[in-house]
Design brief:
Blueprint: H1 10-21, H2 25-37, E1 40-41, H3 42-48, H4 53-65, E2 69-74, E3 77-82, H5 84-106
Antiparallel strand pairs: 1-3, 2-3
């Protein structure tokens, strides 16, 4: 079954998915916490984010699904870390996307 998203380029869909993952302040803070600690267990993230463990877990799931973080299971715990390659690609996509818009808008005025 095709969705409306299927009508758009893959790179735009991927950028939109990652942008959506970044659109919540809790997820932004979670990324900051993980970056500061380089890697951490979910319980440590809960200590730094003013949300319940279950809510933090849902936000981690969104970030992982968007490919921005990685998680490895270590016994009963999951250790999360940033995915540097994915973050670099995200930066390049935003730079390209916004750069194209700026270049095009420089030639037009309202």
């Amino acid at each position: 079954m095709r969705t409306k998203a299927d009508h758009f380029a893959t790179d735009l869909n991927e950028l939109a998915t990652q942008a959506k993952a970044l659109s919540h302040p809790a997820r932004l803070q979670i990324l900051q916490v993980i970056a500061q600690k380089e890697s951490c267990i979910c319980g440590e993230i809960v200590d730094d984010v003013p949300l319940a463990q279950s809510t933090v877990s849902q936000h981690l799931k969104v970030l992982k699904k968007a490919g921005l973080i990685q998680g490895t299971i270590d016994g009963p715990s999951v250790c999360y870390c940033l995915d540097p390659a994915a973050l670099q690609l995200l930066r390049e996509r935003f730079d390209g996307f916004l750069g194209d818009m700026i270049d095009e808008s420089a030639a037009t005025t309202c």
